[in-house]
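Thread: "does anyone have the structure for this chain?"

Original post by V.I.:
We have the sequence but no experimental structure in hand. Need at least a predicted one for the grant figures.
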Amino acid sequence: MQLSRTHVATVAGVLLGFALTSTMVVRTTQAVITSNTATQANTWTTGGAAISNDGAISASAVFSQANDSLLAGGQTVTKCIAVKYTGNSPAQIKLYGSSVSGALTGYLDLKIETGTGTANDCTNFVSGATLFNSGTVASFGSANNSYTNGLGAWNATLNNSLTYRFTVTVQNVAGAQNGNGTAVFNWEAQAS
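Reply from O.Q.:
Generated one for you, tokens below.
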């Protein structure tokens, strides 16, 4: 039996139609049989660093002429300030100086200690460590003027507090007479 071209074309068309229909059925079937899974809504919250000191709360300086009168050569003045960490992420806190100016800062020997105690006059201060005892207010401000080179590296958590005792002694030299000096003590917390 000989097949004619028309007959072959018809058979080929039927086979092609069957193949396309089968593919569509299989594709449709594949699309119906699926599965997926997902998480609940994802949320992100960051913590932060927050720090305060009792001088900032009372809007006063650690040292001031109003509180300490005029200083004399050889005189020592000691003050304490409590710093409290109130951030909700652990942080490292360092102390540094800024806005150090005036010739007198080069004649003010500085000692900084950390410890415990709540009285600004340091009557109940208990020393834990010495942070700085090797120069003047000017040299402290020059060497320790940012977080990067700040002192202390206190690893704080929520509601930790640390008291700092600052002892300033006026050098008993002629250059310290009739002088003025200014410095700002900064505590900076960087949360980890």
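V.I.: this helps a lot. The chain is about 20% helix and 35% strand.
O.Q.: and The helical segments are 5-32, 54-57, 65-68, 137-143.
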